[in-house]
Design brief:
single chain, two-stranded antiparallel ribbon, 2 helices, flat
Length: 73
């Protein structure tokens, strides 16, 4: 339980740091994300480049999870 709380805390701190760096660097923050509801992805992004990266990272994450499930057998 302690590791879960620590992980969530680190993710929140990292998000805040990246947000602050992004605002100070160019005055514009780009962001995006993917929400998977079953087999249907909902892709959110501020521009096309962010959406492409979100899709690529989602595919890589899903392949990694699939590989870990297969190896865990």
């Amino acid at each position: 339980m302690l590791l879960i709380i620590l992980g969530i805390t680190l993710v929140i701190i990292a998000a805040i740091i990246f947000f602050i760096i992004g605002v100070r660097a160019s005055g514009q923050v780009k962001g995006g994300g993917v929400i998977l509801i079953g087999p249907i992805p909902i892709i959110i992004g501020s521009d096309k480049e962010v959406i492409k990266w979100a899709i690529l990272l989602t595919i890589a994450s899903m392949l990694f999870i699939l590989a870990m499930c297969i190896l865990a057998r």
